[in-house]
Amino acid sequence: MRILITNDDGINAPGLSVLEEIAKSLAGPAGEVWTVAPAFEQSGAGHCISYSRPMLTAELGPRRFAVEGSPADCVLAGIYDILSDARPDLILSGVNRGNNSAENALYSGTLGGAMEGALQGIPAIGLSQFMGPRTSVLDDPFEAARQHGPALVRKLWENGIWDDGPYRVFYSINFPPVSGADVKGSKAAPLGYRTDSFFTTEATFSPSGKKFLWVKGGPQHTATAPGTDAALNLDGYISVTPMRADLTAHDVLGKLETVLE
């Protein structure tokens, strides 16, 4: 088995080493795990690709490459250059430091990498570790992902729904902000929506008086609707959300047709 892994926190991020462990446990001794990750942090890059500029790539070691680009760029580099002799069987992206539950999913470079894998016709999973007060006191804040990730990824790989349509399904896994021992289990969940949490900007000024804007996130520990991903995460469950890149609002199509008539 050949697995390509990437992330959006960068090639040196601690969550990437957790993902390497997960991937190696699935690939087994006879398998291959290839790391192609951004040279620098790409959090919030979403599904961005470097369409208007080239990407510098560097081989850092056996089956380990850094790319000056986004997670989606890394997937493209992996498929069409680094692993051009044979496509990967599976793409894993993460483990993100922070949740990609609810509306965070729409900005996530972690899920952007998984989405690109799905668009390329390859099974893909994005993994994220929700952080909070109960993980901040742990020696390993990725404990939940490290302990429960291998079995869950194997279960999805062997028994998950992997279709071959034009917008293939891919998966988003969010591990809860608790210790490994306090994880209650895993549940399928739709995306939630935090009604009081939005990205905003905050102005700062340089010593020369130039104005700069920082993007700020909102509260992350407000529960979403019952049964949705963030609500389950905050209750100690791993959420598994099936996704597609199709942005069509299918529930509106019929009504829109009537309006246009």
UniProtKB/TrEMBL annotation:
Keyword annotations for this protein, in alphabetical order, are: Cytoplasm, Hydrolase, Metal-binding, Nucleotide-binding
**Is Ion transport among this UniProt entry's keywords?**
no
**What reaction is this protein's catalytic activity?**
a ribonucleoside 5'-phosphate + H2O = a ribonucleoside + phosphate
Q: Which domain of life is it from?
A: Bacteria
Cofactors, names only? a divalent metal cation
What positions does the entry give for a divalent metal cation binding?
8-9, 43, 96
Localization in the cell: Cytoplasm
**Entry GO MF terms:** 3'-nucleotidase activity
| One Pfam family in the UniProt entry | SurE
All copies of domain Survival protein SurE-like phosphatase/nucleotidase, residue ranges: 3-194
The EC number(s) this enzyme carries: 3.1.3.5
Q: What is this protein called?
A: 5'-nucleotidase SurE
